[in-house]
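Running this now, will post back.
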Amino acid sequence: MVKDKLNNFITEYNNKKHGSSDHFNKSKYIVDGKMFAPLDVFLKSENLSIDDVLKLGYAHSSLEVFPNDEFCKWYKSQFSKDVSPSLKKKIAIYYVPKQTEVFNAVEKISECYKVFRDHHVLINRKKLPVQLGEWYAKIIFGLEQNKSTSQRGFDFYLDGKRIEVQVSWGDKSNIKGIKFRKSLVEMSEYCILIFLSDNLMVRDICFLDSQFVLRKYGTKGHFIFLKEAELKQYNFSQSNKQQDKVKNIPAMLRFAGPVFAMRASEIFQS
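Update: finished.
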């Protein structure tokens, strides 16, 4: 079993120091509790790919986007040197999200948002739902999340190809459509749309080729507006054309709303 081999590797790796090796320049690491190990070394020794690890429920975390003091301490202890600024931009730490804790938090947040809406505190639907939807996309498709060279914060990648992720929040579809910046679609290989219900659970997912989006949908100035009704036939609840892109089926089903979960389980576990 890959999981057992990986656990043994992490334990054995931390039983001794590796300052004399060239492991200090590796860019992918795995974490188990407070123990880390270079994932690149494990994959090479077992002739495995990163997909084999993602299927176990691991997710990508960029050290530059999400600083990790424990890793930096471990790195210095292991290799007798600090993580260099240039390497810090490249390092990814693969971890297993505590999905139950996230799920419980989502339920609590959903209740809070309802109170905010009922008492006219909540004005618009931004920030948290967007970041939560992007996190869903990251763990479901095994995306890498790295700091962007532009002003937008960070970018997502799948197998080295840039991905544009958009999140739509609400039980009802947006009349105006989901807005994509045309220039970002042109720079991307794929576009992922995550549809969230009012309770912040996934109600559907749409995975499209960027060139297809540019050919099929018209633009208004610098933006492309995709109407949900026009996308319906491509959604995961209706189509199985892009199901091979899903790396973590259990995570998708855990955070899916009831209707989508039933349909997705039929498609992805058939």
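The longest helix spans residues 99-118. More later if anyone needs it.
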